[in-house]
Amino acid sequence: MAKYPGRVKFVNENFGSSPLAERFGVQRYPAVFVDDVLIARPRDFGFFGEGEKGGRYSPWVKNPQNQAKFQADLTRMIDLVLAGKKDEVSRERPDTTGQSDQITALPNFALTDLSGHPLSQEQVAGRVVLVEFWATWCPPCRATLTWLGGLKRKYGDNVAILALAVESPEDKVRATAGSLSPEIRWAISDAKTARAFGDIVAVPTMLLFDRSGKTARALYGAPPDLHEQAEKTLDVLVK
Fold first, then answer.
1. From the centroid of its chain, how far is CA 193?
2. Do residues 199 and 53 make contact, with C-beta atoms less than 8 angstroms apart?
3. pLDDT by residue (tens digit) across 13-32?
4. What is the pLDDT of residue 54?
5. In the predicted model, is pLDDT for residue 52 greater than 50?
6. H or E stretch including 135?
């Protein structure tokens, strides 16, 4: 923004309360607009995207080349809009309204939890399942992980709670897990698992599944009422 004093305004909108995101059918975050042109979708920043489904800036974390590429692209798009060439930006970033990356059911997965035990879809079949993707470098994730311990005590065996870490050093994952509830199933997600869950493009990401394995709700980011939203959904699913 410092490059465009008085010419460009930066607006930050929370996930779930963005008219632009709603208009374009963006169901996850982050998404970047220049004026009303969607120039980068959540998939573009994914941690694990690959092949045709891979984003133009993924993997994003710890990849200075992709971050520099995004910065250059964003600057060029702003320059084009300021020059009155918004139509050119629109042609480069075609409208993909309505495309969804959300999964419809609990996928097959196979991990080993931090205790060395197998963790798979079969082990949680028939129960309500909450899957929380988190990272050690994500401050909002810590509050939710602490809350999950109380959630497990509230629902007991009616709900299986899986806390899957992404893009995080194992020693820090173990330190975090060791300081919190042992009743939660803690594991480190590999790329295959993250992609099976629709690819994880940002943390925290929380996915809720009913007893039949159908996706009941997906919650992204850390809005103030995140825990309230999740518990309302779980109350219905458990009953």
1. 13
2. yes
3. 877 778 888 888 887 788 89
4. 60
5. no
6. none
- Beta pairing class for 37-40 and 32-34: antiparallel
Selection from 137, 114, 133 nearest residue 193 by Cα: 133
Give φ, ψ of 133 to 5 degrees. -90, 130
CA distance 165 to 111: 12
- Cα-Cα-Cα-Cα torsion 132, 165, 145, 43, nearest 10 degrees, comes to -50
- The neighbouring-strand residues paired with 189 are none
- Domains of the chain (ranges plus CATH)? 19-92 (no CATH), 110-238 (3.40.30.10)
Which of the four pLDDT bands, split at 50, 70 and 90, describes residue 93? Answer: confident
Give the per-residue pLDDT at 49. Answer: 56
φ/ψ of residue 205, rounded to 5: -130, 125
**pLDDT category, 117, cuts 50, 70, 90?**
very high
**Neighbouring residues of 54: CB distance < 8 A, sequence distance ≥ 6:** 46
pLDDT digit string, tens, across residues 151-210: 999 999 999 999 999 989 999 999 999 999 898 999 999 988 988 998 787 899 999 999
